[in-house]
Amino acid sequence: MFDLDHVVYFTKKSPTEIAQEVSVEGIHPVEGGQHLQWGTHNALLYTKNSYIEYLSVEDETVTEQSKHPLMKQLLNDLQFREGFGSVCLRSDNLEEQNKYFQKLGYRTSGILDSERKTKSGAVRKWRMLFIDHKIDKKLPYPFFIQWDTSDNERYESLREDGTITPDNESLVITKCIFDVQDVNRKMTHWSRLLSLPIKGNQLKLGNTVFEFRESRDSVERLQSIEIAKEK
């Protein structure tokens, strides 16, 4: 079963502005760092086992030249809205996941090596996998990530540099709510892709719930998330 790794919020604001202006349950995001190969930078707000990434363009020329699927969606979405753009699910074996998706008949990006330079100059590395789809106003498929270190090692490093505090780890993302035009059709596609049973209008992951709502809006996207203090 997949776990939610993070949700991506596309914004025109800089990480500094986000860190100053945004607050969730009294906690502010921290400035994450730069994706030099994509021309983007981010701010991050961690919870116990997932996080929100606020992603924005730092060098438009580099971003526009990038063929990375998430950069294409970022530029597409910022033409008509700021807001949640996509969800990323954590995997411990992207090679096997890629074979499985291709066996189902999906075309994929193949595994993409990625990295981010933090404000302190450290480099964090991971790999990503995307399902090929047209980038427009329809709901994009989730994408997938495999980190270069274990979750325990990664979180310990984030605690050490102050990115994560005990207050962060008291929070959990309990639900991701998607607005779509055809709930049954979209849930059938996602259920098949993620090998998850449909329960009403929800899919239950290891650490959160995906809920689908009918909307007449032409833009299908993750509309909101629910965050709660862990009981």
Short description:
The protein has 6 helices and 12 strands. It is α+β, with helices and mostly antiparallel strands and 231 residues long.
Could you explain how this protein is built, in words?
The chain is of the alpha+beta class. It is 24% helix and 36% strand. The protein has six helices and twelve strands. It has helices at 15-21, 60-65, 69-77, 94-104, 151-160, 183-194, and strands at residues 3-10, 30-35, 40-46, 51-57, 83-90, 112-118, 123-129, 143-147, 171-180, 202-204, 209-214, 221-229. The strands form two sheets. Strands 1-4-3-2-6-7-8-5 form an eight-stranded mixed β-barrel. The chain has a four-stranded mixed beta sheet with strand order 10-11-9-12. A hairpin with a 4-residue loop joins strand 10 and strand 11. It is globular and about 45 Å long. The model has no long low-confidence stretch (mean pLDDT 95).
